[in-house]
Amino acid sequence: MGRAPCCDKATVKKGPWSPEEDAMLKNYIEEHGTGGNWIALPHKIGLKRCGKSCRLRWLNYLRPNIKHGDFTPEEDSIICSLYISIGSRWSIIAAQLPGRTDNDVKNYWNTKLKKRLLGRRKDRGGGGHHHRSQSTADDLPAGGDGGMNDGGGGERSLSASAMERIQLCMQLQELQNPLAIHHNPLLSQWPSKATTDHNHSNSNSNSSMNNVTVAEHGMSSSIRDNHHLSGQQLESAAAMASPSSGGENSNVVVAIEAELQELLYGGGGSQGRASGGGAIIDGGGGGDGAPQGDVDWWSYDQGKQSPVTCWDFTPETSSIFQDYTTVYDI
DNA sequence: AACCAGAACAACCGCGGTTCG
DNA sequence: CCGAACCGCGGTTGTTCTGGT
């Protein structure tokens, strides 16, 4: 049974918004608010638009204090680190970037950062570093080996973003220590475990056994319950990020933090950056391991523009990030 | 100057989760 | 408890812009 369409597609206008439509929507919302019902909103205003379209337009474009373009190195760093940690949870990532929307972040990642990070590997490949695990986006095949696919086609349950994160993680780790990836039990187990967890990802009350894996890594229940991270995502985030999951993985995180700088800004680039070398994930030993030299961008945020003051940093997201900071021992 | 390819951005689509009657 | 309506999110597509030839 299909879902009923949210609006009559024959009568609603599609495509780019005109300045007049923008003005109508903006004026109405500023005067009356959304009224809690986006579907009814266009009818009240007299717009021939789908309610979803109105909502999107408001959130991504018309809302006050929206920033467009010119992502700073700090923002780059936040996006990359969070993406590696939690995957394509653009709304959560965007919540850490004042004035940025999830759509903006997503576009920025897809068009720039991803290419900068993943694309760079190919350059390296030609430049003398030749590694065992070919982990570029193109190279990771359905039947790929290197321990990532555990016999029975584990890749079936891995999303593209998950694969991407594996690639990034492997790539970064290899840069740090070409041998380490093959000795990381969590990474080598991950596909099969993720498959198991993924099958139960929606049952947060019954899949206690799968949650054990999460609990072992210290993931809080509120993240799991409130934000529906799949077992796969939790697993990857926890495996890569949790300091409690073992020193080896902490090393991975440290490697990621360090190598992000190299990947993003080139060799020695971190030297010249005022900040951005910090870590969302302070894997370096339980909170003491603040990155020396560079300003960690969490401190930067807290000192100058705390997430709490973000324009869309709601109490809910605040609590979520409380969880993250707890989990990741930030 | 014209054309083309790739990049960047805006918007749409469909799905899962939540709420409410 | 169930189903419909709604919300929010992530993925994808379409359009516009920009740089190169």
From TrEMBL:
GO terms for molecular function: DNA binding. This is Uncharacterized protein. Residues 143-155, 269-290 have a biased composition (Gly residues). Residues 119-133 have a biased composition (Basic residues). Residues 9-62, 63-117 form the HTH myb-type domain. Its main location: nucleus. Residues 9-62, 63-113 form the Myb-like domain. PROSITE patterns: HTH_MYB (PS51294), MYB_LIKE (PS50090). The lineage of its organism: Eukaryota, Viridiplantae, Streptophyta, Embryophyta, Tracheophyta. One of its GO terms (cellular component) is nucleus.
